[in-house]
UniProtKB/TrEMBL annotation:
<dbReference type="GO" id="GO:0007165">
    <property type="term" value="P:signal transduction"/>
</dbReference>
<feature type="transmembrane region" description="Helical">
    <location>
        <begin position="151"/>
        <end position="172"/>
    </location>
</feature>
<dbReference type="InterPro" id="IPR003660">
    <property type="entry name" value="HAMP_dom"/>
</dbReference>
<dbReference type="Pfam" id="PF00990">
    <property type="entry name" value="GGDEF"/>
</dbReference>
<dbReference type="InterPro" id="IPR000160">
    <property type="entry name" value="GGDEF_dom"/>
</dbReference>
<feature type="transmembrane region" description="Helical">
    <location>
        <begin position="12"/>
        <end position="31"/>
    </location>
</feature>
<dbReference type="Pfam" id="PF00672">
    <property type="entry name" value="HAMP"/>
</dbReference>
<dbReference type="GO" id="GO:0016020">
    <property type="term" value="C:membrane"/>
</dbReference>
<dbReference type="InterPro" id="IPR035919">
    <property type="entry name" value="EAL_sf"/>
</dbReference>
<feature type="domain" description="HAMP">
    <location>
        <begin position="172"/>
        <end position="224"/>
    </location>
</feature>
<feature type="domain" description="GGDEF">
    <location>
        <begin position="267"/>
        <end position="401"/>
    </location>
</feature>
<protein>
    <submittedName>
        <fullName>EAL domain-containing protein</fullName>
    </submittedName>
</protein>
<keyword id="KW-1133">Transmembrane helix</keyword>
<dbReference type="InterPro" id="IPR029787">
    <property type="entry name" value="Nucleotide_cyclase"/>
</dbReference>
<dbReference type="GO" id="GO:0003824">
    <property type="term" value="F:catalytic activity"/>
</dbReference>
<dbReference type="InterPro" id="IPR043128">
    <property type="entry name" value="Rev_trsase/Diguanyl_cyclase"/>
</dbReference>
<keyword id="KW-0472">Membrane</keyword>
Length: 664
């Protein structure tokens, strides 16, 4: 590959000036010899002919009168001329010998620098002789040298003066402005402080300078915009857009720095993984705007609960990480966790007139005991957080080595649950709701079970929490709806009828905008009649975001689907919402039935619910009836519809079929 050479502007201009001025001068000097010779030789020839003619004139009379002395004097006089180095005369008479005179001091005897000219000598047409003069031709060379010196001096002076003038003009009008443009452009490119240059020039460089000023101003503006946007992008990349807390990326950087410092100084750090309990219910029932307001309140409380030197970040929807510097003891970390939980437990207004109480589960991992790097420590804190959820939520838990086994088991359950939904391992059992007076089946509630290929029949408590955390609960809810409608159609084909089938739906399913369309398809596909399908929802689901719930309930009524409120009495909503939503059925939670009739408080609460339902013309079902004393108290309180192990346990469809009334 050819090597590329680059020349600076100064070098290029110097070379151009040298070539542009020196080349013509050199050509002039090269051809000056020929030019001068052509101009000098005619002059010298004329001078020689004049000398020759004067010699002829001086010799005519001596030769005519045959005066040898006069002839000699004439020849000597002719020889005295500086340009004559030899004279030869030959008389035109018989026996005459040539007469030659030569100047010994001249150097033209060698013939190298001599020019010989001859002319006849005549008088009145009579030939007297021939005069031959040898002229010194070195005179021509001397004249040529003199002229060449003169030309060289003039050309050199012209080159020097012309080059100086040209270089001065080029420097003043080209190099200097270009250097200024270069400095200006470099200042713009390197973002150094620079002033707008006032170019008092009307040429192209002046125009270029004005353009550069304009370009510099535009570049400054663009760079300022870019800096502002880079700052904004960094803010977006490093901070959560809602709470303005550091996000996972920035938290990782800070942790890496703090971990290195703690390792050098043999100090301990504590990483807290905070997950809000049942935050999805708030989002699903009250809406995302209320959820965002709650998250803002939570972020403020978390920051207020720790020291200014500690770091709080939001890593996902309802998950936060806290880094406690200088966690000198386990007891100090426990105090922080307790302070966090107490702060979060206070109610927060998330919508006009609506308060939401939120709790959190906190997992704690210590550095360096529980992990040497960020990812490992976060994973262990996450495991500890799930242990806190399993132990009743609204609590904290420190990481223990055995949690790895539990996490692996939970992940394996998620994988198996996906396979169970896909391969049909889920089944429905049905528990009758009976008339407590006669034992006749009034309706049935469908309860999902998992027929595990290795572990056998699994009850909801073992897998529903995993399904809720992983989001699989939505698919399970849809499967339950279709399986219940399909079983209803099968019973009717066999001449049996359950009265109605109740299906438990999660808040995710109830708030799904596609629920009505899905139910419409199922009702049409399986011929479900009016009142034959009941949707059971928990009180916390149906009693929040009443406007959206009311629209969904009205759409369900339009399809002939009834609504039952499950676990009534365990929620926190106003009873006024019950009047607005007007469900068909209330189910008294088993926690109020368990101690009947011995607990006076439970007796009062049950009677209050029954009185409220009677006033609103709502059916009531008592759950968890397991003793005759409970049955008798409920019947005495006019609660006829009962459900519990006293009457019947959940059973497969083929076993309960014989208990159903005939149809049609």
């Amino acid at each position: 590959m050819l090597k590329r050479y680059s020349l600076s502007l100064r070098q290029l201009i110097l070379i151009a000036v040298a070539v542009g001025i020196a080349t013509p001068a050199i050509l002039v000097l090269m051809f000056s010899d020929t030019i001068v010779r052509r101009s000098v030789e005619p002059i010298l020839d004329g001078q020689r002919r004049a000398v020759l003619n004067l010699g002829v004139i001086s010799l005519i009379d001596p030769l005519w009168v045959l005066d040898p002395q006069a002839t000699e004097r004439a020849l000597d006089q002719l020889l005295s001329d500086e340009s004559v180095c030899a004279v030869t005369m030959l008389e035109d008479r018989p026996g005459a010998k040539p007469v030659r005179r030569a100047d010994k001091s001249t150097e033209c005897d060698d013939g190298k620098h001599m020019r010989q000219m001859s002319v006849p000598i005549k008088r009145e047409g009579v030939a007297l002789g021939t005069l031959t003069v040898d002229f010194d031709d070195g005179e021509t060379d001397r004249l040529l040298r003199e002229r060449q010196q003169q030309i060289a001096f003039i050309v050199g002076l012209q080159v020097v003066l012309g080059g100086a003038v040209i270089l001065l003009v080029l420097y003043w009008r080209l190099v200097r402005p270009i250097e200024a443009l270069k400095r200006h452009a470099s200042a713009i490119a390197s973002r150094e402080p620079h002033l707008v240059v006032d170019w008092h020039r009307g040429d192209e460089l002046g125009e270029l300078g004005e353009h550069l000023n304009h370009a510099g101003q535009q570049i400054d503006g663009l760079l300022a915009d870019m800096e502002a946007k880079n700052t904004q992008l960094r803010q977006m990349a490093m901070y959560d857009h809602l709470t303005q807390l550091p996000n996972r990326t920035l938290f990782r950087e800070v942790f890496t720095h703090e971990a290195a410092f703690a390792r050098r100084n043999q100090q301990r750090l504590a990483l807290l993984f905070v997950d809000l309990d049942r935050f999805k219910n708030i989002n699903d029932t009250l809406g995302h705007a209320a959820g965002d307001r709650l998250l803002l309140a939570v972020s403020e409380r978390l920051r207020a609960a720790v020291r200014g030197s500690d770091l709080v970040c939001r890593i996902s929807g309802d998950e936060f990480l806290l880094l406690l510097r200088e966690a000198s003891s386990v007891e100090s970390v426990q105090l922080v966790a307790q302070r966090l939980l107490a702060s979060l437990s206070e109610g927060q207004e998330v919508a006009e007139g609506q308060l939401a109480a939120v709790s959190a589960s906190v997992g704690i991992a210590l550095f360096p005991e529980d992990g040497e790097n960020f990812d490992e420590l976060v994973r262990h804190a996450d495991m500890a957080m799930y242990r806190a959820k399993q132990t009743g939520r609204a609590s904290y838990s420190f990481y223990q080595a055995d949690m790895d086994v539990e996490l692996a088991a939970r992940l394996e359950m998620e994988r198996e649950l996906v396979e169970a939904i896909r391969s049909g391992q889920l089944v429905l059992h049905y528990q009758p709701i009976v008339d407590g007076r006669t034992g006749a089946v009034a309706s049935v509630e469908s309860l999902v079970r998992w027929q595990h290929p290795q572990r056998g029949l699994q009850y909801p408590g073992s897998f529903i929490p995993v399904a809720e955390d992983s989001g699989l609960i939505r698919e399970i809810g849809l499967w339950t709806l279709e399986a219940a409608c399909q079983q209803l159609a099968r019973w009717k084909t066999l001449g049996r009828h359950p009265g109605s089938i109740a299906v438990n739906l999660s808040a995710i399913n109830f708030k799904d905008s596609a629920l009505i369309d899905q139910l419409t398809e199922l009702i049409q596909a399986y011929g479900v009649g009016k009142g034959e399908l009941t949707i059971e929802l928990t009180e916390s689901t149906v009693m929040t975001d009443t406007e959206a719930s009311l629209k969904t309930i009205q759409a369900l009524r339009g399809l002939g689907v009834s609504l039952a409120v499950d676990d009534f009495g365990t929620g926190y909503s106003s009873l006024a919402y019950l009047k607005v939503l007007r469900p068909r059925r209330l189910k008294i939670d088993r926690s109020f039935v368990r101690d009947l009739p011995d607990d006076p408080d439970d007796c009062v609460l049950v009677k209050a619910v029954l009185g409220l339902a009677e006033a609103l013309d709502i059916d009531v079902v008592a759950e968890g009836v397991e003793t005759e004393a409970q049955r008798d108290f409920l019947l005495q309180a006019k609660c006829v519809q009962q459900q519990g192990y006293l009457h019947a346990k959940p059973m497969p469809p083929e076993q309960i079929g014989g208990l159903l009334r005939t149809w049609p």
